[in-house]
């Protein structure tokens, strides 16, 4: 069957049916935490060829959403378990696959699980893989999170770009660029060279022991955003 999809919508009822409930469970609650209904599961198998160019990278399997519990296998080897029904789950499969070779990805989805007790609401119960599944690679040195904070003053703005990284040694610097500022006096507070281009402001964030760093910028007469003038500024961060 196609993924994303729900097997209860496939096969004209041969694989279960959708169940709608409002404030009640689709089974008796007298035996909590047991679920007195036979589990309906689905095994999804596919073969993926891992690109040779991914050698040396971290390889991640991302399952966008599964209802309600999920087991992950690579070449029949157990990798992990997710019970966060309908929420994204990621699994590090770096050691389970080889760059340049094929790997069989197996996802075992359970319709009923401990998570079922947390799902009851005005909803349809439709087990399966509700969102896309991706296998992707990312470098070991990378940006894991980013937050931009702005403080507006009289004719100027202070922009703080807070960065979280992984695999970046303490003392290293992340390069931060605000592109499209359109402020000829834009400059980074901690820039290594004075001044900045008219359209870009460039700075650096010093990475600490926890993999975090902040780059700050002072913008004079910044182009503010409004519904009439939706000015946008691109923020780019790179690490070695």
Can you walk me through this structure?
This protein has 240 residues and is mainly β. The chain contains no helices and 19 strands. Strands 3-9-6-7 form a four-stranded antiparallel sheet, with no helix packed on it. Strands 13-14-18-16 form a four-stranded antiparallel sheet, with no helix packed on it. The chain is extended, with a radius of gyration of 24 Å. About 7% of the residues have low confidence.
Which tags fit this structure?
about 240 residues, mainly beta, four-stranded antiparallel beta sheet, about 0% helix
Summarize, please.
This protein is an all-beta fold and 240 residues long.
Write the layout of secondary structure elements.
Layout: E1 5-6, E2 19-21, E3 41-49, E4 58-63, E5 66-67, E6 69-74, E7 77-82, E8 89-92, E9 102-110, E10 123-125, E11 128-129, E12 133-138, E13 142-152, E14 156-166, E15 173-179, E16 187-188, E17 200-206, E18 212-220, E19 234-238
Antiparallel strand pairs: 1-11, 2-10, 3-9, 4-8, 4-12, 5-11, 6-7, 6-9, 13-14, 14-18, 15-17, 15-19, 16-18
